[in-house]
Amino acid sequence: MRRVPRWALLSSGCAPVVLTGGWVVAGRLEGSSYDPATQTISVLAADGAAGAWVMTAALVALGLCHLVTAWGLRPAALPGRVALGCGGVAALVVALFPAPSSGGSLQHGSVAAVGFVLLAVWPVLAFDPGGTAPWGLRRVPCFAATAVMGAGAVWFLIEIQGNGAIGAAERFVTFVQSVWPFMVVASCVRHKRPAESRL
User: How far, in Å, CA of 55 to CA of 47, rounded?
Assistant: First the structure.
């Protein structure tokens, strides 16, 4: 099994930090008019938002983190690495096409939806059917991660329909999607190959 370079720990570990840091700082810049429970992250990056530059920079950094992690996650199956990398590209495109200050945007919404799907399915596509795979690339954790992300996406859709806690649901899904690559990389770095375990 190919090793994961240690720099992939940095790229994957930075992803949840830049994402949550971005929405916290941008939310503070936006002030009391912004409600993180009922308003989306896209509102923070929208044209004219006080913290748009912060949230946009966070989305760019998140996309780059996913791209670098996908490059370094060599033990993962190629379709999973491609999906993770394309999820990173989607984050970059979302940053390039911010939501308007009022109303919706088909471009922004479509790219965000594609990104959500790619980052939700990459664990299933990345799993290693061999019996000696690191924990993060085994069947049960991979399918469980995708199931949790899928459940979060369903919650998000329910909240959109009911005009409820859209922001809370979105933050749950995006945080899980940003932290899972780090968990996979960490499991790969700590994993001992069968030959090593016999030494």
Answer: 11
> Which tokens is 5 given?
């370079």
Tokens 């495109």 sit on residue: 93
CA 105 distance to own-chain centroid:
21
Model pLDDT, residue 89: 97
Is the pLDDT at 196 greater than 50? The verdict is no
DSSP symbols for 80-115: HHHHHHHHHHHHHHHHHSPPPSSS--HHHHHHHHHH
Per-residue pLDDT of 135-144, as tens digits, reads: 999 999 999 9
Segment 77-107, tens digit of pLDDT: 999 999 999 999 999 999 988 877 666 677 8
Q: Please report where in the chains the tokens 């690339």 appear, as a residue.
A: 137
Phi, psi (deg, nearest 5) at residue 134: -60, 155
Burial of 185 from C-beta contacts in 10 A (0-12 / 13-18 / 19+): buried
DSSP 34: -
Cβ–Cβ under 8 Å, residues 95 and 127: no
Contacts of 166 (CB under 8 A, 6+ apart): 38, 39, 40, 156, 159, 160
DSSP state of 152: H
